[in-house]
Design brief:
Strand content: 5-15%
Number of strands: 13
Helix content: 40-55%
Distance between the termini: 25 Å
Structural class: mainly alpha
Largest sheet: 3 strands, antiparallel
Shape: elongated
Mean pLDDT: 85
Radius of gyration: 37 Å
Low-confidence stretches: none
Length: 557
């Protein structure tokens, strides 16, 4: 090789090491950048120059032409990326469940007070005091007052659960908007990455970092599957459906107006659905109106929740499950066991609403039944008093409790189901005006002790279960404690799963960080190595330059 050619060898060393130093500097400057992946330099040899090719030799006689800066690649583990996104999605799922149960505990006044428990106990005390002296105006007034307090507190608790459902419903909209934003941004990054890497020379590593960070974020919302095609596009499936393609993003929308028969929520809650799968009709102005989302739902919320089949991934699904699709009441429990297990049991809030309403209904219905059949019922004693024959402590504020959703196979939407629920019940207005109308005195003037005995036994008789899946029976006194204990036990179970999941996420994240993370000590070692290589190339060029100068000066003389 000529001395002039040797200058190119030295020059290639300078260029390769300078690029390597730039990469190291880039790694060092992004040590604390969220989502940054360590970049690694790959160097190779330039094409050899063949001087002689003899057939009696094993290999041709060649000399090197220098070093080549081959590639600057990201250091990642695909296995750890997949594991991290699955485990963070699962952790987010149980985190939402724990927060929902904590909110329910708060609504039941078991964290910062015991107001409702006290109102239930006060009603029981009022019944006991009335049993001592049924004809006392003070005791009769106390019973009506405590009953009104009991129902008012029950309405407050139930309203709090409804408000929390509404808050979770607004969260659903925000999550869907963020998912669509992530999809649009990943598609834009796909275009930029393909454009930059189409020459097969450059690598859009920083854009790939942003895309990977978005995939991490998307993984917290639901189950994702993805792969990269030969051009560099990242194709993503969300909950098994096509989300991001090479040139398009299938957006998710929320519906809150369609009926249950058309796939909507019976209570008007937001239901996420795939826009491309919804049934639409064309309007005169060219726009389209969604007429049904049946079959277009993003999630199948009736699928059992199980880690083995990966149905416990994503906080959006967890929010939808915890929120439910309606405000539940006791009808959802007593009408159809299968319906309860499929539609109610998996929702934290709906399950508590149904069980709580069932407790209030049982108490009110039993008290009304006893008072209705009492010998001292004023409606029976005096037909001319202008009171109904079924004069009771509680009455229905609305004459009909009309279902707007299906409960079981025998009760389609619109079915009229009567009965005392928290929302449609009030204390008898006549008793509010005059608590002594129900005198608890029989027609012969004696105290109605039989009725009082029945009222006391009603509170202590263990005839009630929380739901069809529970065999333990409770009285009115123990029912509420059992309900609170069930919520607390569920919260403890979910919290244990959450804590175990957090440890799993931490372990996977730590393993991934060891690969993708930047180590300052390691990068400083590389910097020293490449700096020495740069200095060596520089000295090599100086030597060649001096040799050339010596030859020229010698020959010139």
């Amino acid at each position: 090789m000529s001395l002039m050619a040797n200058l190119y060898v030295g020059s290639s060393g300078l260029q390769a090491t300078q690029n390597a130093l730039n990469t190291v500097a880039h790694n060092m400057s992004n040590m604390d950048t969220d989502g940054y992946t360590r970049q690694q330099v790959s160097q190779g040899t330039r094409a050899y120059q063949t001087l002689e090719n003899r057939f009696d030799c094993i290999a041709p006689k060649q000399i090197g032409t220098g070093v080549n800066y081959s590639n600057c690649k990201q250091v990642r583990s695909e296995f750890l990326d997949i594991s991290y996104r699955v485990e963070t999605g699962r952790s987010a799922f149980y985190d939402v469940s724990v927060k929902a149960l904590e909110e329910v505990e708060d609504q039941l006044q078991e964290m910062q007070g015991t107001e409702f428990a006290e109102s239930l106990n006060n009603l029981w005390v009022a019944v006991q005091e009335l049993a001592k002296d049924p004809c006392s105006a003070v005791n009769q007034s106390a019973l009506v007052t405590r009953a009104n307090e009991f129902l008012t507190r029950a309405k407050s608790v139930y309203e709090g659960l409804e408000n929390y459902q509404a808050n979770m419903d607004s969260i659903v909209v925000d999550m869907v908007e963020d998912i669509n934003y992530i999809g649009d941004r990943i598609r834009e990054l796909n275009e930029d990455i393909v454009s930059i890497e189409s020459n097969k020379i450059e690598r859009a590593n920083d854009l790939r970092d942003e895309r990977n960070l978005l995939l991490d974020r998307l993984g917290t919302y639901g189950k994702i599957d993805y792969h990269e095609d030969i051009f560099g596009n990242c194709i993503v499936l969300f909950e098994g459906s096509s989300f991001i393609t090479t040139d398009h993003v299938n957006h998710i929308a929320c519906d809150h107006s369609l009926s249950e028969e058309k796939g909507g929520s019976p209570a008007g809650y937001n239901t996420p659905y795939w826009e491309y799968a919804a049934t639409t009709e064309l309007n005169y102005d060219g726009s389209r109106t969604v007429i049904s989302i049946d079959g277009a739902h993003v999630f199948d919320l009736e699928t059992p929740i199980s880690t083995s089949i990966n149905t416990d991934i994503g906080k959006l699904k967890s929010v939808l499950l915890a929120r439910g699709d309606r405000n539940a009441n006791y009808h959802d429990i007593v009408e159809d066991k299968d319906y309860y297990n499929e539609k109610i049991a998996q929702s934290v809030i709906m399950n508590v609403e149904a069980e709580f309403d069932q407790m209030i209904h049982n108490i009110m219905a039993k008290i009304n039944e006893i008072m209705e059949n009492a010998e001292s019922n004023p409606g029976v004693l005096d037909d001319t008093a202008g009171m109904p024959s079924e004069f009771t402590l509680f009455s229905v504020a609305n004459e009909e409790d009309k279902l707007v959703y299906r409960v079981g196979e025998d009760n389609p939407p619109g079915t009229v189901l009567t009965g005392l629920t928290i929302k449609n019940t009030q204390v008898n207005p006549k008793l509010i005006q005059d608590p002594t109308l129900f005198t608890f005195r029989t027609i012969d003037g004696n105290e109605d002790t039989a009725t009082m005995t029945e009222l006391k036994e009603a509170f202590t008789k263990e005839d009630y279960v929380l739901n069809p899946n529970v065999s333990t029976r409770n009285s009115f006194i123990t029912y509420y404690n059992s309900l609170v204990s069930q919520v607390a036990n569920s919260a403890d179970v979910y919290n244990s799963i959450k804590e175990a999941q957090e440890k799993t996420v931490s372990a996977v994240e730590s393993a991934r960080e060891q690969i993708v993370g930047v180590s300052s000590d390691e990068e400083l070692e590389f910097m020293i190595m490449y700096q020495n290589a740069y200095n060596a190339s520089s000295r090599y060029i100086n030597v060649v330059s001096e040799m050339l100068e010596h030859l020229v000066s010698t020959l010139g003389s």
